[in-house]
Amino acid sequence: MTPTLLRRGCGILCAVIFCWLILKWIGWATIVEFRADLLFYTGQHLLLVLISMAAALVVGIAAGVGLSRPSMAGSAERFMQVFNIANTVPPMAVLAIALAFFGIGAISAVLALWLAALLPIVRNTYQGLRNVDPALKEAAKGLGMRPLQSLLKVELPNAWGVIMNGIRIALAINVGSAPISFLIGANSLGNLIFPGIYLNNAQQMLLGAFATAALALVLDGLAALISHCLTAFQGNGAVEEAA
What we know:
Layout lengths: L2 H24 L1 H6 L1 H34 L7 H13 L2 H12 L3 H25 L3 H9 L4 H31 L12 H9 L3 H41 L1
């Protein structure tokens, strides 16, 4: 057995043991008692994450692409500070501001999660595109590609790995921040966590927290799989073009 396989096996074994210990602490009776709530609030949590992430992807990638253009070279970092400042605002403060404008409910929660997820996507998109080898850009220009063609066929494919890292960071932040939307009346796994805290029910609280962590791991795994598939697809496309 190779060292890599051994490390992976040990990691999987440790994860299984850890999950077993957590589930044993929670107790099967608690899981059965809250199974309907767990399924419902997991679905609502996932809905908040998907909507806010979709909006963050559209705005974040577009902003990162815009800031990476040569015409923005002198002012890109100044504009990036706007996103940095927005990211320093605590999620609770963002929720309070959103609550003042949109009231109690999911809209305020989606706005807060959108802002939390925005910076990593913008930053990584910008950095990924700026770090593309200038020789590749010159080659694309020499082949007669227009700026949009160069962006889609040369720059984005070569920056995809960095961009995907930003998306995964944003996804982890988003999933982990979503439970606090309970405080403004939006449904999420926070509906298990916070009542568990208020009622001093450690099993209920831990069930919500464990479900949140598990959801984050599953979504991150899916994002990694998508990234791997896209990288493989691009590699196969490059081989076919060369042939």
